[in-house]
């Protein structure tokens, strides 16, 4: 079942006996788990009817014993198993999941990796429980997700702002939502979230950030590229090298797609690259700035820079030296 459908049902008061929330994206798992924890019972019912267990510290017998108890002066019991992927006897819950207590809501929060649904246990859970496949979003899906998330809260964001949040925070939805919560505090009634507001609240330099680096690369503004790189060196906490390299992988991937589909319409290119149509013109410019050979070199150099940033093959390299070498290699082809 999709995350949106699960949340819609929960907000309508529809609860199921067993939920398996599994996958690499913790935000959706935490969101569903948190909603059930805070809303399935009223505050006065939780002391006697809600149990929070942890996979490393519990076993199937403890989970089943709690799930089989009758609610005390409440409509239901709630049993939540956090970090269920660490529960050694997880598969032993199969018989309970196949015939669960109708008066209990059991939540298995299986984070960081998906459960193998091809196994006997996986097949059984798939038939008997509500399943949330919590997958990481691709980079090009994040701006649209931000816009959808904000619309659900009756807020609007302009394309530059959602792109800036994505470029700065990557795929970490929990971090993105935390920053959005900060922005909301500073938002006036009816005000749209703009790039300027994001920069002011999140603490992103207006002139020196990954978004501006991409724009400088698109027209090969070498002096500005170097100014931004030096700024990153002086502000490593705000601009960690790993994040910058990851961003550049995404950037050159979009440039390569644009170059291969240069005759496509803006709408088609937006769909292929996963960017807002507003930014398509920037990638068209970049596709003309870089030759095919330079783009290939960029990927090779980025792979090397990624290794060097992790201390592989060039232990004494500094972030500034790695970025300077990267730019030099792209330019020199």
What does this entry look like structurally?
It is a single chain. α8 (159-169) packs parallel to α10 (195-202), α12 packs antiparallel against α17 and α13 runs antiparallel to α16. Strands 2-3-4-1-5 form a 5-stranded parallel beta sheet, with helices on both faces. The chain contains 17 helices and 5 strands. The termini are far apart. It has helices at residues 3-11, 26-39, 43-49, 60-68, 94-98, 120-128, 142-152, 159-169, 173-185, 195-202, 210-218, 222-234, 241-260, 266-273, 280-289, 292-309, 319-332, and strands at 18-23, 50-54, 77-82, 104-111, 130-133. It folds into 2 domains: 3-133, Rossmann fold, CATH 3.40.50.300; 205-332, Zinc Finger, Delta Prime, domain 3 (Up-down Bundle), CATH 1.20.272.10. It is elongated, with a radius of gyration of 24 Å. The chain is of the alpha/beta class and 333 residues long.
């Amino acid at each position: 079942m999709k995350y949106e459908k699960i949340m819609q049902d929960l907000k309508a008061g529809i609860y199921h006996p067993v939920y398996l929330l599994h996958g690499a994206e913790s935000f959706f798992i935490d969101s569903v788990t948190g909603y059930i924890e805070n809303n399935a019972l009223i505050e006065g019912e939780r002391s006697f009817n809600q149990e929070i267990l942890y996979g490393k510290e519990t076993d199937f017998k403890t989970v089943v014993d709690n799930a089989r108890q009758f609610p005390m002066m409440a409509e239901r019991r709630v049993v939540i198993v956090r970090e269920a992927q660490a529960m050694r006897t997880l598969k032993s819950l199969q018989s309970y999941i196949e015939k669960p207590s109708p008066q209990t809501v059991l939540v298995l929060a299986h984070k960081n990796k998906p459960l193998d649904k091809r196994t006997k246990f996986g097949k059984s859970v798939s038939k008997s429980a509500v399943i949330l496949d919590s997958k990481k979003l691709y980079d090009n899906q994040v701006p649209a997700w931000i816009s959808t998330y904000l619309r659900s809260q009756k807020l609007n964001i302009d394309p530059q702002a959602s792109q800036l949040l994505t470029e700065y925070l990557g795929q970490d939805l929990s971090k993105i939502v935390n920053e959005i919560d900060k922005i909301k505090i500073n938002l006036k009634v009816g005000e749209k979230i703009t790039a300027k507001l994001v920069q002011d609240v999140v603490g992103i330099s207006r002139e020196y950030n990954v978004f501006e680096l991409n724009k400088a690369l698109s027209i090969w503004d070498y002096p500005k590229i170097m100014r931004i790189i030096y700024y990153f060196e002086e502000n490593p906490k705000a601009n960690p090298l790993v994040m910058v390299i990851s961003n550049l992988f995404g950037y050159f991937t979009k440039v390569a797609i644009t170059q291969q589909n240069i005759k496509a319409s803006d709408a088609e290119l937006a769909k292929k690259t996963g960017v807002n149509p507003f930014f398509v013109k920037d990638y068209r410019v970049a596709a003309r700035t870089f030759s095919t050979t330079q783009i290939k070199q960029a990927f090779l150099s980025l792979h090397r820079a990624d290794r060097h940033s992790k201390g592989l093959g060039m232990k004494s390299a500094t972030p500034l030296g790695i970025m300077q070498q990267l730019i030099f290699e792209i330019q020199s082809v």
